[in-house]
Amino acid sequence: MSMRLVYSSMLGAGVLFFCAVAQAIEFKSVADEIAVLYDAPSKQSTKRLILTRGYPVEVIITSGNWVRVRDDVGTFAWIEVERLGAKRTVMVSEAVAEARDSPGGSAPVVFKAEKGVVLDFLEVSGGWAKVRHRSGIVGFIRLRDLWGV
Question: pTM for this structure?
Answer without folding.
Answer: 0.79
